[in-house]
Amino acid sequence: MLTLALAAPPISACARALLDVVRANNNAATAAASARAFVVDGTTVGRVLPKSAAALGRYAIFDVSEEAVTLRGDAGATLEERSKAVTEVICDLRAEGSVPMLDGWRDEAFAVRTSFFAPPSLVVERAAAGLFGAPAYGVFVNCYTEGADGRPASMWLARRAKSKPTWPGLLDCLAAGGMAAGEMPLGAIRKEAAEEAGVPPRLAGAIQPAGGVCYTGFDETGWALKRDVLYTFDLRCGDDFVPRAVDGEVEEFSLTPMDEVARLVERQAGERLFKPNVAVVIADFLLRRGFVSPDDDGYLELLAELRNAELR
């Protein structure tokens, strides 16, 4: 009987290097465990760091103890009333310039909730979401070309506009965004792909769900916890597709060979090249698509670290 020895696919990324990158982003689990609970209508919906607790504690609608920041019942009996009362506080903090994360005001509605399908306890400005440490949900799409061997050959990377309020000038994936209150993942990523990269409807219809990653980190100001759950998507494109910056959030796009993508992500631990959670999303792509060998030391740890927070 003739047995054919099949060549192993080329492996491009080091599991340990990627693990360092993912862990650098997933670095706030201890702080989250010791943070104050954020309680609305008797339910814990978030975790509040000390600076944020001090800022919120200046307002009568919040009771702050060593264990919790509680929205008082007299702030409102309905979602609309509670959200209005909390929004007035957020707007006041923004006006006085005392909370740095509010400098990134987006005019986007964010649902404070215990899980994706849970009813919202509050709806607030997205830039203020970190004040309350509630789970946040986003969508990210990796767009790639395919080689003759059927494996991803190159990936489209975006360079964030220098005018962006967060992580200006860093590398990003083709399109991504946080989900506003009421959005669903598939519709959200198709919308982001059209708005940020000019992906036409027919190609956007080929976007495929690919799972997700989750982590607990700090925001760039140090005031807030990022308890993020990111839905990930893949999009295989042909040589005839060239993304274009539509809404001004991207400075340029570059089609980058996968070996180079892997090297750039590996460098992220010591040199910030990507928006941090984008490096995590691409590390997950590299793992899923066979660019990390299962024989590599750190493979299983990387697999676990990519989903080392609550997924719900």
Automatic annotation (TrEMBL):
Source organism superkingdom: Eukaryota
According to the UniProt entry, its GO molecular function terms are: 8-oxo-dGDP phosphatase activity
* One Pfam family hit: DUF4743
State the InterPro entries in the record: DUF4743, NUDIX_hydrolase-like_dom_sf, NUDIX_hydrolase_dom
Enumerate the spans annotated as Nudix hydrolase domain.
132-280
**This protein's name:** Nudix hydrolase domain-containing protein
